[in-house]
Amino acid sequence: MTRSTIAATGRSLRHDKQRGTAELLQRGFRDALGRYPTGVVLITAMTGDGPVGMACNSFTSVSLDPPMVAFYPMPSSRTWAALRPIGEFAVSILRADHEHVSRRFARKDVDKFADDDWTLTPAGHPVLADALGWLDARIETVAHAGDHDVVLASATSWSEASAGEPLVFFAGNYHSLATRAA
User: Fold this and answer.
1) Domain Flavin reductase like: where (predicted)?
2) In a domain, 176, yes or no
């Protein structure tokens, strides 16, 4: 690949630096990463004041042995501030038809747990009754990284995934997977 081909495929870091603003660099980095599709989950927990939760697309598996997962909340998140001291949480893996749930959990001014069927995990945390799957997790480590925290957690129990298509986030929008022809 030649330099001119690389330059023609998108903004280069050098070009953005010449334009001069940190915001432009940050937006370009975000747009580049937005080309990587992710699943969407809910991170939830039961507190003394009731259930709390947030939508999350920065969730990933880390290890099979031992079973570990990670997610990356903003330290300024009020939901993360309520979840962190509990030391554990549940994850609901969202279906393609759960876009409305994800959007509701991304908001601050609504009852996030209204209008859907919920069940409790063995640890007592709420999960969507019709999620593709769920897991309970115990926080092992929290580290600060840039403008986010890195939360490493041990999975303590989980459901086997049910049939269905996942909700996918790509290029700033929700999508579902294209069904492959038989």
Assistant:
1) 33-176
2) no
**Rounded average pLDDT over 164-182:** 80
Sequence-ordered list of residues with C-beta below 8 angstroms from that of 161, at least 6 positions apart, any chain: 93, 132, 133
43 and 125 share one domain: yes
The two structure tokens encoding residue 24: 């432009």
Flag whether 154 is in a domain.
Answer: yes
Host H or E run for residue 142: strand 133-145
Residues 46 and 84 in one domain: yes
- Rounded CA gap, 15 and 19, in Å? 7
| Rounded CA separation 170/36 (Å) | 6
Pair 63, 16: CB distance under 8 Å: no
What number of CA atoms fall less than 13 Å from residue 54's CA on the CB side? 18
Note whether 64 and 147 are within 8 A (CB): no
Residue 15 within a domain: yes
Lowest mean pLDDT among 73-82, 130-139, 166-175: 166-175
